[in-house]
Amino acid sequence: MIGKYINSIINIVFLIVIFNFVFLIASVPVAGFITGEEVLSASMGLSRDIDESVMLTEDKPVTFMISTLEQGKTELLDITIVDPQNKEYSWQKGFGGYDEPGEHIEFSTVFVPESSGMHRIRISNANFNTGVKLVSGMAHPSEQPLYLKTMLISAVLMAIGIMLFGSSTKRVPLVPGLPVYRTVTTGKNRMRKFTASQTIIALFASLYIVYSVGFQGAL
Fold first, then answer.
1. Residue 62, beta-bridge partner list
2. What does pTM read for this prediction?
3. Bridge partners, 169 (sequence order)
4. DSSP class of residue 60?
5. Which helix (H) or strand (E) is 123 found in, with range?
6. How does pLDDT run along the chain (219 residues), one tens digit per residue?
């Protein structure tokens, strides 16, 4: 009976590290769509700039999401933000040059407002149709202090689990007395069989860990 409980606990831990590894990788692109508040959505192109005023909150980071369907083309965007105290922030952002078809999205520059209020956003010098979204308070899981540590621990434990739970093999002579061998399977570890309850427990535990590591305060 004790051995059964131990096997169940090991199974749950193994599933947790697998879920952690997968969810942490997925959290980076997913974060832009499930966290933060969209404060601006606009598009620009040749002879068409963005000039909008948006409400931003002091010390609440704003992430620029820049997207396009264009292939092979590049541009150097001029970005200017003027805050309520008329303090101006300016920089340039290179974008484009994609080889593959489809929509391409970059989670670009993060701007941290020094004061709350209306900010004027000007973006110009686009060479092709480009979409821009500003998301206030978006989470950046990969920048959190425990992200890489959790990823590393999960990867190591997952590798150990795969080795422990994998099929065991050995080499045996194909013909007795001749140096010709074949590989045979000697057995499989029974702990590779996971129950539905173990999977559910591991799934919820992993979601809580990933939330604590990458999304605390953002959801």
1. 111, 136
2. 0.67
3. 185
4. -
5. strand 117-124
6. 666 788 888 889 999 999 999 999 999 888 877 888 899 999 999 889 999 999 999 999 999 999 998 888 899 999 999 999 999 999 999 998 888 888 888 877 789 999 999 999 999 999 999 999 999 988 888 888 899 999 999 999 888 877 776 555 566 565 566 565 555 555 555 445 788 999 999 999 999 999 999 887 665
